[in-house]
Design a protein that fits this description.
The protein is α/β, with parallel strands linked by helices. About 25% of the residues lie in helices and about 15% in strands.
Length: about 230
C-alpha cells in the first residue's frame, strides 16, 4: 500500500477531526516549536488571527493518561500533556505519520503491530487518534532496539557495523540469543533456512527481554562483523 494512494481516506479523517474541533493551524518556525523543549508549547492553539500562509495542522490533545498493554514491554502509560499537540498534516499538505498509520492500518484490518521500542512513546498519539476517529486499536509489541556500546541505535548513517551475508547463520543465532530464544549449540551448523524454521517454531514474545534497548557489548561485535581478510 502506498500512502499517496490513500489521500481520500486521509482527507476524510482530517474532516472528522475538524468537525470534532480538534484541529488548528500552526505556522510556528522550528525554533518557535521547540523553544528549548521537545514538547510543542501550544503557541498557535488559542490564536485569534487567521493563518493565511503555509501552515501545518495540529491535533488538540487532552491531558489524559493513555495506557498500552504492550505484549513485550508490559503496561506503558503516558499523559498526553507530555506529548503535546502533535502534527497530523505537514506544511507541504502531506499527512503526517501518526494519522496515516492509524487510518491505513484500520483499512488493512491490521490486528498486530510489531516494531522497535524506540517507537513506543509515539504510540499514545496513535491510540488517541484511534479513539477520536472510532477506529479499532491493534495489539502492540515493541521489541528492544539493538544499540552500540555507546547507546546509539545501529544505523547506516552512523556507519554502524553492517550485516554480512557470508556469516548470516552466525548473525541469526546471535539475534535469536538476544531475543531470549536460547538457541542450542547444535544450531551453529545449521543452514539459514533451517535457522528460520527453528526461529519461527520457537518464537515466544514472553521470552523477549522487557527493556527498550539491548546494548551490544564490545565483545559482541564479531557476530555482526564480516570475517577478517585472509592472510
Amino acid at each position: 500500500m502506498h500512502q499517496s494512494a490513500r489521500s481520500a481516506d486521509h482527507r476524510a479523517a482530517l474532516e472528522t477531526l475538524h468537525a470534532l474541533e480538534r484541529l488548528y493551524a500552526c505556522d510556528c518556525s522550528r525554533r518557535e516549536r521547540t523553544s528549548g523543549d521537545a514538547v510543542y508549547a501550544g503557541t498557535c492553539r488559542s490564536r485569534r488571527d487567521p493563518i493565511r500562509g503555509p501552515h501545518a495542522l495540529r491535533v488538540r490533545v487532552d491531558p489524559v493518561d493513555i495506557t498500552i498493554d504492550d505484549r513485550i514491554q508490559g503496561p506503558f502509560r503516558m499523559n498526553l500533556a507530555a506529548l503535546g499537540d502533535f502534527i497530523v498534516q505537514r506544511r507541504d499538505a502531506i499527512v503526517a505519520y501518526p494519522l496515516a498509520v492509524v487510518v491505513d492500518d484500520a483499512a488493512l484490518g491490521v490486528t498486530d503491530v510489531v516494531r522497535g521500542a524506540d517507537l513506543l512513546e509515539s504510540t499514545p498519539a496513535q491510540c488517541f487518534l484511534q479513539t477520536l476517529l472510532s477506529l479499532p486499536a491493534p495489539r502492540y509489541a515493541h521489541l528492544p532496539v539493538l544499540t552500540e556500546p555507546g547507546g546509539a541505535k545501529l544505523a547506516k548513517s552512523r556507519r554502524s557495523v553492517p550485516l554480512d551475508g557470508r556469516i548470516a547463520s552466525r548473525q541469526l543465532i546471535a539475534v535469536f540469543d538476544w531475543l531470549g530464544l536460547a538457541p542450542p549449540p547444535a544450531l551453529a551448523r545449521a543452514r539459514v533456512d533451517e535457522l528460520w524454521t527453528w526461529g519461527i517454531a520457537h518464537w515466544d514474545a514472553r521470552r523477549v527481554p522487557r527493556r527498550p534497548n539491548l546494548p551490544l557489548p564490545a565483545a559482541a561485535g564479531p557476530p555482526l562483523a564480516p570475517p577478517p581478510p585472509a592472510g
